[in-house]
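> tool_call: predict_assembly(chains=six)
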Amino acid sequence: MFYHIKELQYKAKPDRPDPVYAKKLQEVLGGQFGEISVALQYFFQGWNVRGDGKYKDLLMDTGAEELAHVEMLATMIARLLDGAPVGDQEIAAKDPVIGAILGGMNPQHAIVSGLGAMPADSVGNRWTASYIIASGNLLADFRANLTAESQGRLQAVRLYESTTDRGVKDMLSWLIARDTMHQNQWYAAIKELEAKENIVVPSTFPKELEKREVSYVLFNYSRGNESAAGRWAQGKSMDGLGEFQYVENPQPFAKKPVLRPAPAYIHDTPPQVLGAMVPPHTK
Amino acid sequence: MFYHIKELQYKAKPDRPDPVYAKKLQEVLGGQFGEISVALQYFFQGWNVRGDGKYKDLLMDTGAEELAHVEMLATMIARLLDGAPVGDQEIAAKDPVIGAILGGMNPQHAIVSGLGAMPADSVGNRWTASYIIASGNLLADFRANLTAESQGRLQAVRLYESTTDRGVKDMLSWLIARDTMHQNQWYAAIKELEAKENIVVPSTFPKELEKREVSYVLFNYSRGNESAAGRWAQGKSMDGLGEFQYVENPQPFAKKPVLRPAPAYIHDTPPQVLGAMVPPHTK
Amino acid sequence: MFYHIKELQYKAKPDRPDPVYAKKLQEVLGGQFGEISVALQYFFQGWNVRGDGKYKDLLMDTGAEELAHVEMLATMIARLLDGAPVGDQEIAAKDPVIGAILGGMNPQHAIVSGLGAMPADSVGNRWTASYIIASGNLLADFRANLTAESQGRLQAVRLYESTTDRGVKDMLSWLIARDTMHQNQWYAAIKELEAKENIVVPSTFPKELEKREVSYVLFNYSRGNESAAGRWAQGKSMDGLGEFQYVENPQPFAKKPVLRPAPAYIHDTPPQVLGAMVPPHTK
Amino acid sequence: MFYHIKELQYKAKPDRPDPVYAKKLQEVLGGQFGEISVALQYFFQGWNVRGDGKYKDLLMDTGAEELAHVEMLATMIARLLDGAPVGDQEIAAKDPVIGAILGGMNPQHAIVSGLGAMPADSVGNRWTASYIIASGNLLADFRANLTAESQGRLQAVRLYESTTDRGVKDMLSWLIARDTMHQNQWYAAIKELEAKENIVVPSTFPKELEKREVSYVLFNYSRGNESAAGRWAQGKSMDGLGEFQYVENPQPFAKKPVLRPAPAYIHDTPPQVLGAMVPPHTK
Amino acid sequence: MFYHIKELQYKAKPDRPDPVYAKKLQEVLGGQFGEISVALQYFFQGWNVRGDGKYKDLLMDTGAEELAHVEMLATMIARLLDGAPVGDQEIAAKDPVIGAILGGMNPQHAIVSGLGAMPADSVGNRWTASYIIASGNLLADFRANLTAESQGRLQAVRLYESTTDRGVKDMLSWLIARDTMHQNQWYAAIKELEAKENIVVPSTFPKELEKREVSYVLFNYSRGNESAAGRWAQGKSMDGLGEFQYVENPQPFAKKPVLRPAPAYIHDTPPQVLGAMVPPHTK
Amino acid sequence: MFYHIKELQYKAKPDRPDPVYAKKLQEVLGGQFGEISVALQYFFQGWNVRGDGKYKDLLMDTGAEELAHVEMLATMIARLLDGAPVGDQEIAAKDPVIGAILGGMNPQHAIVSGLGAMPADSVGNRWTASYIIASGNLLADFRANLTAESQGRLQAVRLYESTTDRGVKDMLSWLIARDTMHQNQWYAAIKELEAKENIVVPSTFPKELEKREVSYVLFNYSRGNESAAGRWAQGKSMDGLGEFQYVENPQPFAKKPVLRPAPAYIHDTPPQVLGAMVPPHTK
């Protein structure tokens, strides 16, 4: 169950409106690695934990915080849109500042949301749950979380670099710090699980059921062998259970497949028209 | 540039057709963590590397292999669909086996693809590039790759558990082994980059620009303090640059925001109707 | 800012697992009118309110409750999936109950989420923010809310009708009652706004700027005049500002449009090929 | 069955081309509340009416009109794109008017549609049937229709405010007037159904099957009690069947849920690793 | 402008309900090549024709017919859903026929649409305008139309093969015949345009601006030369302007690209960490 | 199986960076008819061919080439983004060139991809497999391929017209030439199949099962008879099996449908409320 309080986790007040920046800032609200993504990802992972304890609690703690970040960003975006102009582009073009604003802002901020934030990214794609991950396997999922916090902090930093507004920078410096913590915390949780389970997910699948002869082999399918210079091409494997090998000229392990014709009621191209098994051309 | 050879990387031949399993197997072809996702993710990361060398090469090697896996799965799915029945569900229901097949198979495998694989997941969602990640920051991206291989191997293992067909199991044991390698290789690459850059992405943002007072703090927004028992709540931070702290009753750092009214030309609810600042109810 | 507490708003415990019903129940979690939709819709409307007061508070109250409903449904779905079988459809088909479960459950519940709820609807479409509405105009938005609660309660009732599980019915009877309240509350809020603004949204657009001669006319574009029997075809208009009229044989108010050719650099079909203005065939 | 006539319902001719405005106008053609949405929503509702009579007829009348509006908007957009420039942005930037046009227009209007309208919104999202609603319950659906006409008119008004082109304004003043009618007509139809069915949808679900003790309760999940000041918190409920109550400090009605472990073949995090039931930290 | 008449173009009455078939039939209503796709594709092409005459008229004629087909299919689907059971899968499984129906029908047909058709395909993906094509170049677009009618007729035939209901077959035999006509008509229109413009689209781009040395070359990027046996590998090109050539071992025409580092404010992996230009491994 | 080589098929080097053009060029990389679409379309068609021989080989040849085109475009876009500015729009607006760049570039090129290409179109829609076609019927599919190459070449030509950069034009002149070849090759393959199968897809459905009386009839549903002037309205049908007819005033072949009420457990509007069969209004 959830309680909302009306105070913000941290300040979300720009020095002045900037509708073009409002459009860009949508990325970290409603983009692939925006705050909606992490909030819902952590909640779904938490709800799906089969058992109880510190991991579930950590997920719910962090999910609730990310929802507070959605709120801060929504507030900031509404303020960046304060009094945004609408109007005739051609007339506006005579004043380059107004022209740049009108040309660069997201038209839906005026037409659709009435100067409010939208659940969308910086080019207007609506947020989709296709972005999020919750598998029931926490090591797999915490890796997704570390990824999300890495991509998210990277985007926040890029946004920090592209404004001179001190209010916006102040809020971003908060979000960036929180991403530092969240990267640290998922890192800690991952180390703990890896210590118990080793590094390959899932840890519970019997090793003898996989084709172990290719479990530590790098196949060089991209001509040139720069990749042979990496740690992944030699020495003990990272899980400590094998030895890395490098295969410079990988060959196929199977033959050319030929599929049987479809039944007539499927109405694929009929075999006689398909002209299967045409002898190869000799030139 | 790419060359295709007609042989498969590994065998993709089931013991017998199984159209219901064909539907399930689509998940690792065209789902969020299917082979299309990793193939295109690695290619886009590789094409975007600004520079040259072993990381770019490794990305292209692995992307090319994943495309070969798409091919193996497409071949396997077509064979699982060999001679799939179409027909009248009610009549079929009299033969429970036929009924189960007709009820459980993906109707698009008959109607749309003519007994071929589709670029879609196990419930029919078409593959979307919203699944993939390529940021230009390799540590962030390799974490995404380790995530993808973890989720992908988990799904392949679950699919392995849900069939008794030896041909399918044989192919999956190959794919599972390759996922073991790919988890190991991205793990190795990540360790190498972390050794150079420390663990927080991006490493190049000056620490003094973030709100360092909250860079290592766990806020307990989910009542109950099980999460305090974790490594993330105490001791040196994982990046070695701070000390974890746990805040049991986190309070807001900012005030309740009130937004200014919109200009009249936006036609939001007018301020006088909105009745802002109504004194709170006393009960 | 948000706090989570670990207790549920109401019980979410089925009598027994039922993976097929779990799939159906996803509709009211992650479908067009599922609880994710209303939670995020109310939050975005609340965050975008420009001013303060009871409407904003009501939106945040209700949004927080809907998020608690997502949590209840996620919990219920996980329990309905307890110990769900995976396995070979053809073998399963010999036991009609197992066969029906395997054929009817969502394969992603096993392969993707590991027996957890997903942010998706009953056929597997992932939730999308294209479902939600927040315009900055509260009368327009409260109508969207009343719609959402009407559609949502209808779906919950249909789901209630399709199970005999007392635990599930118990939870649904809670959700249905809450939808009763939410329909009542938005209805009350709408009446209040309509009393201040009259019924046409937005109320702030000057009447003289619209083509008032067609503001209260029903054009009968579907031959046959059953629609003339309605209140909307005669008498005072509902906003009290006009008189309904019925036009049985509506004629166009404008001429046939002919578009000018595109510039050559667009490479549309060239005008001379298009053969524009060919004289009509006489037969 | 449908007949098309080549005349437009109303004029769709701008004073002069304006490719940037063409992009914005797409919102009411192919956006969430654009004319495609209402046309197809009314048609699907009409086709799904089980019975016959005035409601079905009204739906088909209005659907046919909305399709005529799609046609008017498509015509207007093509004309706004007449002779739209393509070209080099950097060169164009020297002429601020050309620069503003090139920077602000939708590049797909040149590259993809060849200066024609697209089935997309003002930021280029393609229209999706996820926008539309047809449930078989007309009261629920007419509320959706009133919502659509409210949001649609609001957007049309905002677009009216952002141009000085008299031809565009003339067409919009027509569409705005028609939205006035359509709000009035759905309002009338809703009143009629509410008079027969009372206000809660669906009206046919027995009241005694819902948890009536919470059917008229407002839970204050957002701290601070401004929402208690509303009509929805006191007095007779709007359906006349209960009394509104306000609960200032709502408590959970259920316990903290703990899920049972998944079967081994699912390969979730194993229970022993999950470390469930860790005793809470005391600080 | 459009008029609707209430009679159907052709009968849409099944012998008996069949909810599982209703799900399948959705494919040709709301799938990639369903009737919504062709109706809106032809309308958008028609509205975008810059000029007037027989092509535009043909597009509007056919679009209006396709909309009548949507209506027929929506009617048929509603009737196939007549009295569809809802209920408990496990209980139903005891009656194999009911079990098969419940397991195989689309749950949204009961929960969402109330036994009505949906704007979705046979697996529940909502229709999207990403399916349709209107470029302003009629030869390009008529090819899209011939494609759509080919794919659509193929799907209708596959659906015809999978039912024994005479009413359904009767309606499908109508739709299949109309697809025969539509393939014939677009074929005729294409021939006419090709006679005027030759076969390569767009015909208006000066030949000397393309790299003519590769305009008629087949590069054999898939090892093995079966493709050399085709007409496309030898003889006069189909446009009559060149000679087909076959290149058995195609080599790259450009060098390996190396991208310049990103500016610091982008925070990609820094060049020194990237370790560009690492000398290749020698083995 | 696939091998990658690091050289490009052809040069992809612009004269100078141009971030706004980079955004536009995304259309032919990740749009509906971009290179991802054709690469994956040809691969899926190839993998689904049931048999072997020249058609399958041709598909794989061309698919592999299209993937090389994705690579060229990704490289070109990264170079067009070299050193792209980020920054404050309002400040930038003082320098019209910088302002135009910032206003016109895709913000995700800076924030999300770190100056790399994205799997998206020119307005930022992520690529989706909803674009592609593989039916198992090669005549149907080759028509889709000819369509894709027609639309794709048209878009490349439009992009060629909108830049003055010689490097970009050089690369586009290569891609345009390859599209010339690909249109020619699919045209040749289509002619070959049509010679064997006649022109109507699928060729294998018995003619006597379709309603032959309407297989060659043009119904004039769009008033005015310009369409009667076409080849499709008179003379021998294109498949040689019938005679085209033109019906100027087409009438319905079926009666007005009335659907039976839904069962009570569906909770549609009850029949008594629906007021079916209301006698029509007489005016």
